[in-house]
Amino acid sequence: MSLLVVGTVAFDAIETPFGKTDKIIGGSGTYIALASSYFTKSANLVGVVGDDFLQSDIESFQQHGINTEGLQIKEGEKSFFWAGRYHNDLNTRDTLATELNVLADFDPIIPDAYQDCKYLMLGNLTPEVQQTVLNRLKQRPELVMLDTMNFWMTEPFLPSLKEVVKQVDVLSINDEEARMLSGEYSLVKAARAILKMGPSYIIIKKGEHGALLFSDEQVFFAPALPLEEVFDPTGAGDTFAGGFIGYLAQTQDSSFNNMKRAVIYGSAMASFCVEKFGPQRLINLSQEEVKERVQEFIDLVQFEIDYA
Fold it and tell me: What is the rounded distance in angstroms from the CA atom of residue 167 to the CA atom of residue 145?
């Protein structure tokens, strides 16, 4: 089953307490596509870059089986660039620079070869761009997943965001964003309020404290894997989303029970992401490493109780 990933493909400059890099590939589309590629070999990418994006960078996608026909290259223009510095706790960061460049007037073109997608992952972009993608698909995918951020939950973007949220099956946001979108502090109440906006499922990411999956009637919690070292949290949420929807596309099963498994696979991929700068850890993973990491999650939460 084909997967369509729409998101940013960019350059980042990242500084953490453990080091810094002046220029590394980033963007929501990058992390989502790379993470999903470990589960499905039919991932199609839509995004935009400038001519400063190297052919070798594009080839790194293709080597993962990611179709880049939908990756626009704007001659004479620069790729989207973001620079940030993380604090010692790695949960807070300062944005040092944001240069939209080619992203300022991004018009997502969906190639004909992408039109039969069964799974759609809308990475963090303006609600208008996300809506354009939905409008340009000739038929609705079997499952649509959306990731967004707090910036789009403010005026004048909020009405457009709510229109997009109405049309998706799965919404993936963090705990701060869930509270902001719903106006509720309790994450249970927040999830209930957001589910009434349209999605059938909501994932609330809590960073180092795991992730929650909600439907109208069920709740599932997956812890984050305790890691000895967290090097760079950039892109962890997008990597989670890529692992999640990649697993769904591989198994072709969108039931709540299978989504619980997908949360574990997404969490496993995110745990790899934070071990190196940017997406470096996602480039050369082996399937055996992925299996072993998933087993670590299983061992973390598996227990028996004797009621006798």
Answer: 10
pLDDT in tens, 29-49: 999 999 999 999 889 999 999
C-alpha 123/C-alpha 299 separation (Å) is: 31
- Tens of pLDDT, residue by residue over 58-69, are 999 999 999 999
User: Taking Cα atoms as reference points, which of 249, 251, 243, 195 lies closest to residue 218?
Assistant: 195
Domain boundaries, the chain: 3-301
What does the DSSP assignment read for the chain?
--EEEE---EEEEEEETTEEEEEEEE-HHHHHHHHHTTT-S-EEEEEEEETTS-HHHHHHHHTTT-EEEEEEEETT---EEEEEEE-TTSS-EEEEEEE-GGGGG------GGGTT-SEEEE-S--HHHHHHHHHH-SS--SEEEEE--GGGGSTTTHHHHHHHHTT-SEEEEEHHHHHHHHS-SSHHHHHHHHHTTS-SEEEEE-GGG-EEEE-SS-EEEEPPPP-S-----TTHHHHHHHHHHHHHHHHT--SHHHHHHHHHHHHHHHHHHTTSSTTHHHHS--HHHHHHHHHHHHHHH-------
Bridge partners, 85 (sequence order) = 15, 94
Pair 121, 3: CB distance under 8 Å: yes
Q: At what angle do helices 236-251 and 256-273 cross, to 10 degrees?
A: 140
Please write the tens of the pLDDT for every residue from 175-223.
Answer: 999 999 999 999 999 999 999 999 999 999 998 899 999 999 999 999 9
Does the domain spanning 3-301 belong to CATH 3.40.50.150? Answer: no
CA separation for the pair 32, 50 (Å, rounded)? 20
**How many angstroms separate the CA atoms of 73 and 68, rounded?**
11
Residue 186: what residue type? S
